[in-house]
Amino acid sequence: MSFICVKDLVIEFTRIDESGSEVAGTRAIDGISLDIEKGSFVAIVGMNGSGKSTLAKCFNGLLTPTSGDVIVDGFNTKDEDHLWDVRRRVGMVFQNPDNQIVSSVVEDDVAFGPENLGVEPAEIRRRVDEALKKVGMYDLKDKGAHMLSGGQKQRVAIAGAVAMRPECIVFDEPTAMLDPRGRESVMEIVKELNSEGITCIMITHFMSEVEQADRVIVLKDGRLLCDRKPSELFTDRAMIDEAGLEMPALIELRDRAGLPESLTTTADIADHIKAHRH
Question: How far apart are CA 68 and CA 209, in angstroms?
Answer without folding.
Answer: 30
